[in-house]
From TrEMBL:
Signal peptide residue numbers: none
Record keyword Membrane present: yes
Entries under InterPro entries matching the protein: Calycin, Invtbrt_color, Lipocln_cytosolic_FA-bd_dom
GO BP annotations, alphabetical order: lipid metabolic process; response to reactive oxygen species
Gene assigned in the entry: APOD
Lipocalin/cytosolic fatty-acid binding domain span: 93-236
Lineage start: Eukaryota, Metazoa, Ecdysozoa, Arthropoda, Hexapoda
Name this polypeptide is given: Apolipoprotein D
């Protein structure tokens, strides 16, 4: 049968089987054609439903990001995956990197909230791993510390795992973006979430109170790689027990 004839027989069959539906549909069709407001209302209803669906999706995704961000300890969270093209120190010398480093500044980091005199001490373990001991003073001048192991996984790239911390939050990538070993080190970490990523940045120095030139040199490393300095917070290194 031709398409027109086939449609005619299909319509007649439906009309016989469902006379009530056919009648209501015909009535609604006439109303839509005769009254533009009905069509307008239908369009508005469809638009509202679409907007509500989009809002629910946004709320759902926002909750995912918030939960994921909490799991990675409150670093700076941005939409999208971790940036590509971040370059680390290719001729990284782990032995020269050992020793005490003082935290000059960082991205907000919940584990260090309210802390001062933050420092990290790295010691030799094996040819491809170093010991890690991070310590700080609380607002009540109480010392706290956490230890772990950093394994070298690539040039200027380490994977750090802290003792006594759940595996989900206990490990992190530790990328050395720049260092002269004697004055400063710039460390970067990024973790992909579901629709976003969380970044942490540290500027470490060998002295608690580094010169402006040293700080500027470290900051230039971040700027050259497109890493924002805006979230950086300067760490309080005053009144520390071993201050000079």
């Amino acid at each position: 049968r031709k398409p027109a004839a086939r449609h005619y027989y299909q319509k007649r069959t439906l009309a016989r089987l469902f006379p009530y539906i056919n009648k209501k549909f015909a009535s609604l069709t006439r109303s839509v054609h005769n009254d533009g407001s009905v069509l307008k209302k239908l369009k508005q209803s469809a638009l509202i439903a679409k907007m509500q669906k989009q809002q629910l999706i946004c709320v759902y995704l926002s909750l995912i990001v918030l939960v994921s961000a909490k799991m990675v300890a409150g670093q700076v969270v941005k939409v999208g995956p971790c940036p590509s093209g971040i370059e680390t120190v290719q001729d990284f010398d782990a032995e020269a990197y050992l020793g005490v480093w003082y935290e000059y500044s960082k991205y907000p980091f919940v584990f260090e909230a309210g802390g001062k005199c933050v420092q990290a001490e790295y010691g030799a373990l094996t040819s491809d791993s170093v010991s890690v001991l991070n310590s700080q003073l609380s607002t009540f001048n109480e010392k706290s510390s956490i230890s772990g192991v950093a394994t070298i996984v690539g040039p200027g790239k380490l994977s750090v795992r802290f003792n006594g911390v759940a595996s989900l939050a206990g490990s992190a990538n530790y990328w050395v973006l720049g260092t002269d070993y004697d004055n400063y080190a710039v460390v970067y970490s990024c973790k992909n979430l579901i629709i976003a990523h969380a970044e942490t940045v540290w500027i470490l120095t060998r002295e608690r109170d580094p010169s402006e030139d040293i700080v500027r040199e470290a900051q230039d490393v971040l700027v050259s790689q497109g890493v924002s300095l805006d979230p950086m917070i300067v760490t309080d290194q005053s009144g520390c027990p071993d201050s000079k």
